[in-house]
Amino acid sequence: MNIGLVTSFITGGILMISILALHLNLFQNANQTTMDVLSMDNLKAVVEVVDHDFTKIGYGVSANVFTTADSNQVTYQSDIDDDGTVNSVSWRFNPGQPNTQTPNPNDFTLQRVVDGKTLNLGLNVTDFKLTYFTMNGTATANPDSIRQVRINIICQAPAAYRNRFAESAWEKTYIPINFFLK
Q: What backbone phi and psi angles, to 5 degrees, belong to 150?
C-alpha cells in the first residue's frame, strides 16, 4: 500500500471531522443566540408597556395615588391616556399561575389592568418584583409615603436550548415627576 495515499486519507479525514465539528459548533451558537434574542425581545415588549404606565404614576391625581403596593402587585391612580379621566391602573404578577402557552415551566402570568380591563402579558416573564421607597430612599410599604418605585423584571426564552433557558433582566427606579407638581 502507498504511504502517501494513506497519509492523504488520514489528513482528509481529520480535515473533514474538523469541518463537521466547526459546523456543529456554529449551529449550536446560532441556536443559543436565537434564544437570547427571543428573551431580549420579550423583555423589551414588556418594558415598553411598563415604562409607558409607570412614568405616568399620579398624573392628574391630587392625593392617594397608590391603593395597593406589595412586591408582586401595585395599583395606582393616573390619567393614563391623558383624556382628563383618572384611571385605576394595576400591575399583577402571580407566580402561582403558570403561562401554559409555552413549554417553559418558569414563566408566569403578568397582568396589566386598567379600569377593570385585563391584559395578560404572556411574554415569558419569570420574575417581576416591585420595591417602594420614600423620597429620601428609605424602603417603605406605606402607600401614602411612596415616592419611588423600583421594578425588576426577568424574562426567559419560551423554550430551552441544551437544557438552558436564555434569560434577560431589566431594572429601573421610577421617580414620577407628577409627585412634585402637586
A: -105, 135
Instruction: Identify whether 1 is part of a domain.
Output: no
Count CB atoms within 10 A of the CB of residue 10.
Answer: 10
**CB proximity list for 175: less than 8 A, separation 6 or greater:** 147, 148
How many angstroms separate the CA atoms of 147 and 48, rounded? 21
Instruction: Say how far apart CA 54 and CA 12 lie, in whole Å.
Output: 62
Structural element, H or E, at residue 93: strand 87-98
Look at the block and give the residue holding cell 398624573.
59
pLDDT digits (tens, 9 = 90+) for 8-43: 888 888 888 888 877 777 777 777 777 777 778 888
Is 2 part of a structural domain of the chain? no
Asked if 151 and 46 touch (Cβ cutoff 8 Å), the reply is no
Q: How far is CA 114 from CA 17, 111, 140, in A?
A: 59, 10, 25
Q: How far is CA 78 from CA 18, 85, 146, in A?
A: 61, 8, 15
Can you give the pTM of this predicted structure? Answer: 0.80
Question: Within a domain: residue 13?
Answer: yes
Classify residue 158: in a domain, yes or no. Answer: yes
What is the domain range of residue 92?
Answer: 8-180
- Give Cα separations from 54 to 48, 177, 181 (angstroms): 10, 11, 16
* Structural domains of the chain, count: 1
Dist CA 157 CA 37 (whole Å): 8
